[in-house]
């Protein structure tokens, strides 16, 4: 399903106009779901009930228009065309005729659309400034459904809602009965839309024509998952829209039967205690992406500063935040043009009849068995390639094979895994593919990123034994502790209300609603807390697990839905020595290539500011691309082996150490007819 709209405007230009939220986007595009950075405001997402039209045939529409009394523009005189009482009629931008009664003509067309005689996505509207009636039936227009209001009354009644909830009516039935219709942006400008039933205007020029189905439908599918978003500072909702898409959870009912390149799964996903109507509509509860954590909002040691979270070790032992990482590894058993082909072989025998430890898990068919543990460096597919694979002299039947060399697949991850699945399949060229799915089970560790549904992200700063964690009068220990400094400047009041509603939901055994512009009221939730013997504010008296004394302040304490975002195991990287790039002889870049950590321009400037010249020399040359060259003191050009090819002498040739990148630059400049000369001095 397509839900994203990308503007063709240049992302590098810093113009606010195309990025701003336009009034015409109300209900059509989500006001919160847009990326940060250079694409901000240019990449947009559809609101919950938005529909993008497809092409509708225009010939029947044109014939119908003429049947309704439209006069052909080809037969009209100039005086008739410019008469102030006559309105031009356009179909998809093409003038087809004139009408003397535009309001009557538009009313008839709309009546036919509501009766289902023409497509529900045909748009009809009047522009009094242009003296024109526009009919649009082309594709690519954004439209959304609205309830029709006639004579000050909504056509959708309580009886219709009861039938809808009972499953006896569908949304399509509302369209066919003419109770609901789709309007595009242009027709919306020609309508009067009430937000709530109480806002309907019965008569006069501002008479209401339509009613919003639900105000929360102005948000998109991702922003609609946030509880109480109307209580948050708006950028926080935008941050959550980006982070919510990265949350680890369940992806499909067949997730354990498929082989994806990389798949992260939460082992124990849970429904949120505080849900929204959007969560029900999109089926989020069937495939959730998070867990309800009991959170204490307090400071605990110094390891919770800058949004870091303190996690309860016993909660992690019970499965909080536990993930499975499935990674696909593929190798191909090729057939070569000379008739030879790769093969899978049993583990090679040692001289003493044993097998190398790396090959321990290899079965007789050359592949590791399902369920086997794979340690770093272990071979799990023992592939062998013929040494004459690229030799065209062998017989085309592949009968002549000189010998085989080992080209096995070894496990490169630093953490052990398990063989989850093995699949053998064929490509179009009749080559055999061996797909091996390796599973790792991970539990949260220091540095893993968590986030609530309010754009409040943080990493795990400390894992504490349960006996050292604070607990309340009921003996409940929090799963995580959050620093209270995350609230004042972020102004995520929705998170505080989620805690109170979630706590009330736990005590009453019912899920609560935090739908935008509605949801369960704080007053009602606080009343429920008091009925069950808790403070109306959601605060509890906690006892220190270390000293056994009561804490001096009441602590905000309750369940908040948290999502696991990123794992530090996939990010961490260090290197002492390793591969270097062939061209520049500098360390390679990136974690996957065992690359170096770059000391960039800003870090260099910082070291210059401190005057650390020896450290600069060591980092930027000695540990990077140190290279010895011969340079002529006379002409200043590079030579080789103590010889200057330009001066034809070895008299005044000195050895010096420069970065290899500098030597490469000199040679590239010389290739462009620029002669860089080095001026040498004794030091």
From TrEMBL:
Its main location: nucleus. Its EC number is 2.7.7.6. The keyword Zinc applies. Residues 1-20 are annotated as: Disordered. Residues 222-593 form the DNA-directed RNA polymerase subunit 2 hybrid-binding domain. GO terms for molecular function: DNA binding; DNA-directed RNA polymerase activity; metal ion binding; ribonucleoside binding. Gene3D superfamilies: 2.40.50.150, 3.90.1100.10, DNA-directed RNA polymerase, subunit 2, domain 6 (2.40.270.10), RNA polymerase alpha subunit dimerisation domain (3.90.1800.10). Keywords: DNA-directed RNA polymerase, Metal-binding, Nucleotidyltransferase, Nucleus, Transcription, Transferase, Zinc. It catalyses: RNA(n) + a ribonucleoside 5'-triphosphate = RNA(n+1) + diphosphate. Signal peptide: none annotated. GO terms for cellular component: DNA-directed RNA polymerase complex; nucleus. It comes from the Eukaryota. One of its GO terms (biological process) is transcription by RNA polymerase III. InterPro entries: DNA-dir_RNA_pol_su2, DNA-dir_RNAP_su2_dom, DNA-dir_RNAP_su2_hyb_sf, RNA_pol_bsu_CS, RNA_pol_Rpb2_3, RNA_pol_Rpb2_4, RNA_pol_Rpb2_5, RNA_pol_Rpb2_7. It is found in: Nucleus. Residues 3-52, 89-150, 171-215, 595-680 form the RNA polymerase Rpb2 domain. Belongs to the RNA polymerase beta chain family. DNA-dependent RNA polymerase catalyzes the transcription of DNA into RNA using the four ribonucleoside triphosphates as substrates. This is DNA-directed RNA polymerase subunit beta.
